[in-house]
Task: structure prediction
Amino acid sequence: VAGCGVLFLLTVLWLAKLVHHVDVVRKEWAHPVQGPLLALFPVTVLVAITLLLPAAPAWREVALWVALAALALQAAIAWEVVSKLATGRMPAELLSPALYLPIVPGGFVGAMALNALGLPGWGALLLGMGAGGWALLEVRILHRLFAGPLPPEGAGRDLRVQPLFDAQQVLVARAGHPLARARRLADVQPA
Result:
């Protein structure tokens, strides 16, 4: 219950920030790391519903509307992230694990909340969407981790880049392949 009080207080403070500093919230929304981190709020609300509803079933109707509002916010944040990734508006050097937050926990925790609300079918659908989003993001982020360049200097004052290892890239072809002598990726692009 004390945790819900803190969550309520933080919600009121964030809404005050939204009202008085709209430009700051817009910048946070568009930021490649801060934007996805905004998804922690609806995920926290959904966790609270999942934990508290079994102890207070009389609040089911209120919890349902709060969960739907949290899921709508979660969907809006996830939509923003996925649209940036799908349309190329997210530069490859800014891909980070923070992108998981709107899609994966939103699906998994949202599924738990919907199940607690007595909607297991919708919960299963949301769980599948979270798992599918996880698989799609994993490909992009692992590719970035192993093959991508380091972020440019000044990409963000709040980010620190420290390489953990070097990954050597190689081209492999079967013996006798017409492009077996290629030494650059550009040489095999037409194939």
About this structure: Residues 60-87 form the longest helix (28 residues).
